[in-house]
Amino acid sequence: MDTTVLIPAYNEEAHIQAVVATARDAGFPVLVVDDGSTDRTAQAAEAAGATVLRLPQNQGKSSALAHGLAQIQTPYVLMLDADLVNLKPCHLLRLLEPVRSGKLDMAIGVFKSGGFMTDFGNRATPFLSGQRACKTNWLKSVPNLTQEPWPEPAITDHLSRSKARWAYVELTGAGQVMKEQKRGLWKGLGLRLKMYIAILRYHFSGKSRA
Q: Which domain holds residue 198?
């Protein structure tokens, strides 16, 4: 197999098993990076067939992604969030195909008909999508990948600066559990605001232009 599915996860016991099972059904090996979870995320992922790398404490999605990326040897990598719903093997194959065929350097998945809130959020900020396919070596070349807690701004910035070929790929029927659903309304909103502030800080930082 030429592709590894990489899933950073923090306290996703309720959702990770279904995501891993779908990736395994699609024929891919799966590496889950358990980012210091306090629930049974690691055990659920292993039960579904994933290899699990456990971090001793919560370090943020960027750091979890980087730790997992360092372990991957396949030419291609599929990045997925741990809280996806209604994900099907065909979604993963559709995301990977234009990269594997050489048409694109990166494919970014966006939800369609996966639920009003997830569709709206994903369409409003598609560059923040955690569903991506690319060459492993390209991802390893992204500078400042762990500068902020979320890796998507650094990846998107590098897409522009490296003049990589990329496009959005619709994942019809798939969706995502919103932060407000998982953490509660106010805590979820707080986490979302924190993410947006980190994104703005990254783009206005001189380090992003290194």
A: 3-209
